[in-house]
């Protein structure tokens, strides 16, 4: 029986209680309409520690958790996503899964088929779709306030790189970082990326190059209408965590992320903007978006809204990221396979 039918609040389960999982758990506990939050983790004692810190409960196993919840949040390691999504769908639960669906596109496709065959509901965790700035940009663009777009520029720069051991298995800068820019590029414009040309460099820690990654990269994306978009990323941005998207149209220009915490400063005399401290990481930059994402999942679980980000959406962004990684490897433009 659903929570709504039983006349009670939702019971949510979170599997994987690392940094993002702990954030989801805390947000779930604080979301109106959520009655209980249960946690499970493959690392012994981890779920209990996080549960104690956020006001949740620890389940003895994933199987025990699945039998007690109305919705499942998957925040475990990427390799575990397919199994956990299938388990949630097979238990008749709506699922919120952190991106990506699976480590690569080929292994994602059977998961999409399984979800479709089971009639499952899976929301993917592309949190920028819930950020106030991106939502306003999408509204303004759809309303025609910018006219027709001629250029898009989107950047994501971390203040410092994660451990090299993580980068060795992350899939590369475009899959690890820029996939968020590629998702909102499709979401904002309503167009598909049809071709990507990418370049990258390593001017920081040589160990990043030794494990097959780059620390800075750009991709020129050609959209289905011919619109050009430039996506840039870096793991070394001493000014702070920098996420901005600029939409330039025939009537006007709109920038997401240009606020008092933007990681930029002006070279013009007398200009003091921005005045505030920069965001140190993505967690602070998108704190409100992550909360809104969990709230939206609760609405989805109660049947109150459409799915805001489907597994097919996530795979489409991953296809573009794969093409960018291939272009980075070969130096040649790469066509993006149709979805």
Automatic annotation (TrEMBL):
<protein>
    <submittedName>
        <fullName>Gfo/Idh/MocA family oxidoreductase</fullName>
    </submittedName>
</protein>
<comment type="similarity">
    <text>Belongs to the Gfo/Idh/MocA family.</text>
</comment>
<keyword id="KW-0560">Oxidoreductase</keyword>
<feature type="domain" description="GFO/IDH/MocA-like oxidoreductase">
    <location>
        <begin position="134"/>
        <end position="254"/>
    </location>
</feature>
<dbReference type="InterPro" id="IPR036291">
    <property type="entry name" value="NAD(P)-bd_dom_sf"/>
</dbReference>
<dbReference type="InterPro" id="IPR055170">
    <property type="entry name" value="GFO_IDH_MocA-like_dom"/>
</dbReference>
<feature type="domain" description="Gfo/Idh/MocA-like oxidoreductase N-terminal">
    <location>
        <begin position="13"/>
        <end position="126"/>
    </location>
</feature>
<dbReference type="InterPro" id="IPR000683">
    <property type="entry name" value="Gfo/Idh/MocA-like_OxRdtase_N"/>
</dbReference>
<dbReference type="Pfam" id="PF01408">
    <property type="entry name" value="GFO_IDH_MocA"/>
</dbReference>
<dbReference type="Pfam" id="PF22725">
    <property type="entry name" value="GFO_IDH_MocA_C3"/>
</dbReference>
């Amino acid at each position: 029986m659903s929570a709504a039918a039983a006349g009670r609040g939702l019971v949510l389960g979170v599997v994987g209680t690392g940094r993002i999982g702990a954030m989801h758990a805390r947000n779930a506990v604080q979301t109106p309409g959520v009655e209980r939050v249960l946690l499970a983790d493959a690392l012994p004692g981890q779920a209990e520690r996080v549960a104690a810190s956020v006001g949740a409960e620890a389940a003895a196993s994933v199987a025990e958790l699945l039998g007690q919840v109305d919705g499942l949040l998957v925040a475990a390691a990427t390799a575990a996503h397919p199994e956990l999504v299938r388990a949630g769908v097979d238990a008749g639960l709506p699922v919120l899964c952190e991106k990506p669906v699976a480590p690569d596109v080929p292994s994602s496709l059977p998961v999409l088929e399984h979800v479709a065959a089971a009639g499952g509901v899976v929301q993917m965790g592309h949190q920028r779709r819930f950020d106030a700035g991106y939502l306003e940009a999408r509204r303004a663009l759809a309303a025609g306030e910018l006219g027709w777009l001629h250029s898009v520029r989107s950047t994501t720069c971390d203040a410092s790189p994660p451990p090299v051991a993580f980068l060795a298995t992350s899939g590369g800068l475009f899959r690890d970082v820029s996939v968020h820019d590629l998702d909102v590029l499709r979401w904002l414009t309503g167009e598909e990326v049809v071709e990507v040309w990418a370049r990258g460099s390593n001017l920081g820690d040589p160990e990043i190059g030794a494990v097959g990654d780059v620390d800075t990269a750009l991709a020129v994306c050609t959209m289905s209408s011919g619109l050009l978009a430039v996506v840039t990323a870096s793991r070394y941005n001493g000014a702070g965590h920098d996420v901005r998207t600029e939409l330039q149209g025939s009537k006007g220009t709109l920038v997401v992320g240009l606020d008092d915490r933007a990681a930029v400063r002006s070279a013009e005399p007398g200009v003091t903007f921005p005045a505030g401290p920069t965001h140190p990481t993505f967690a602070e930059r998108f704190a409100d978006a992550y909360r809104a994402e969990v709230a939206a999942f609760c609405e989805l679980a109660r049947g109150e809204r459409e799915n805001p980000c489907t597994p097919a959406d996530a795979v489409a962004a991953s296809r573009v990221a794969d093409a960018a990684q291939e272009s980075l490897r070969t130096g040649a433009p790469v066509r993006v396979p149709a979805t």
